[in-house]
Write a structure and sequence with these properties.
Layout: H1 7-23, E1 30-34, H2 40-45, E2 53-58, H3 63-73, E3 78-83, E4 98-102, H4 110-123, E5 129-134, E6 136-137, H5 145-157, E7 164-165, H6 166-175, E8 178-186, E9 190-197
Parallel strand pairs: 1-2, 1-4, 2-3, 4-5, 6-7
Antiparallel strand pairs: 5-9, 8-9
Length: about 200
């Protein structure tokens, strides 16, 4: 099959990689990517972290495309893709030091976003990090005219979609034991938010 291709993945992969290198440590062993999309991110990022098993996942209909990218890559630390539709499928098995997702929160419904954040609270070990990339609103306001236009197009396509509010995301994650570590400002009015699962109190 012809591999699926996302121009956005090609544009944003270098700035995202810089953050991943900032956040992923040599002690991390397994990363789960939620919503691997075309598979382009996985095959680009994984070789930069040869000590890390990169586990891909997505909805069933996207798996053949992801698999075609993974098969061509041949990177030994890539696994999957596994089936994971938030709210329908069980959270992937295994212990993950990092969970990464890109351009999913504005596609999923808010209920699905909240379900994923509950899953993270239940399944991530203390010290694990959650990285979420995409556009976000702050204090109920768009950060750019282009983001406002993008939000309109999303909601016209499907009413459940739309750019999420940073404060709502941070609050929902805090309720599930994950605190904000850093908010990275990336090109094209996107952010990469890094959260950390709270350490257990002795």
């Amino acid at each position: 099959m012809d591999k699926p291709f996302s121009e956005a993945c090609e544009r944003n992969r270098i700035p995202i990689l810089k953050v991943l290198k900032d956040v992923i440590s040599s002690r991390d062993t397994r990363l789960l990517e939620v919503g691997s999309g075309t598979g382009q991110h996985a095959v680009y990022f994984a070789p930069h972290f040869p000590h890390l098993i990169w586990v891909t996942s997505d909805q069933r209909e996207n798996l053949p495309g992801i698999r075609s990218w993974l098969d061509e890559s041949g990177a030994p630390n890539l696994i999957g893709p596994g089936i994971f539709k938030v709210g329908e499928d069980a959270f992937p098995n295994g212990v993950f030091d990092v969970v990464f997702t890109a351009n999913t929160f504005h596609i999923m419904s808010w209920d699905e976003c909240r379900q994923l954040m509950r899953d993270l609270g239940r399944h991530l070990p203390p010290g694990a990090r959650f990285l979420v990339y995409g556009p976000f609103n702050y204090q109920g306001r768009f950060t750019s005219e282009s983001n406002e236009a993008f939000d309109r197009s999303l909601r016209a396509s499907a009413p459940h979609m739309g750019i999420r509010d940073f404060e709502a995301v941070a609050q929902a994650l805090a309720e599930n034991g994950l605190g904000l570590v850093r908010d990275y400002d990336l090109p094209a009015n996107n952010r990469l938010l890094v959260f950390k699962k709270n350490e257990l109190v002795q």
